[in-house]
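User
Please review the sequence:
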Amino acid sequence: MKAVVFESKEKGATYNEDFKSPEIPDDFVEISLKAAALNKRDDFILKGLYPGLRPNVVLGSDGCGVYEGQPVVFDPGINWGESLEYQSPDYHILGMPQHGTFCEKVSVPKTNIFAKPKHLDFIQASALPLAGLTAYRALFTRGRLKPGQKVLISGGGGGVALFCIQFAIASGARVYSTTGSEDKKSRLLKMGLEGVVNYNGNSWDMDFSREFGPVDLVIDSAGGDGLHRLVNLLNPGGTLVTYGGTLGKSDNISPQVIFWKQLNIKGSTMGSPQDFKNMIRFVEQHQIVPVVDRVFPLSDFNKAVARLRSKDHFGKIVLTIS
């Protein structure tokens, strides 16, 4: 079958038109894929920054296809475990170490399969699973967002951040964001946000505070030296949820700010099967349509990765398969 296969950190991934279809594990079923979407996770794997890398593994976590003649989406998480609070040691995601979705057919547990939301086409639905799941858990399961609360979502323009924005607006929250370009700022404001600040300024947090005041919830994926600015923008009793660390460690957060303001600092990653079920229901109820930046054929995987790595993309990048 046609597939994008990870070789090594040095060689990256290659497009293979004659990759041998893997055996289907017990209790798994095979889905014929129509489209798949990229995530930052795929880029981390290509750069050798992901643990447990193995050669000859089909990349990709997100996808949408057909099972028994019906259009479906599926939870890309395997072996979450019994707890709703955190994942088990055996938890992993399609696309490493298990074969993923950048191919014509993928195997998943039958219990992971859900009907494709009827208002979405295959391309839109393929962009939903992992990013939508991550956003839903960060906002609602961990962040416990309520209607009317003020939420700041950093890095508006990325796949998960845009889902956070769409979900938060749909839930009745007052939504704000940061971004690195004036073009993205304009596009975000058109989505219905109450305010957007360009984070390239040295005092963007003070600008935000003067114009919009403190917030009840912050959702962040970057970390790094700017994380303390987000902490400082929280109301007393507020919550910061982090689901990523693309800018690395944060060494300048003041413990005094955290304990004196009685802040909640929470981690969040992917999501449980219940989170996925709730996310699909929420998307259907509110008719959420994923923001798709560009669409490439599977054979143009390298072009898709280049687009993902650029600072210009706004939304999810999708690969068409069949």
Q: What stands out?
A: The domain at 133-267 is CATH 3.40.50.720 (Rossmann fold). The chain is about 30% helix and 30% strand.
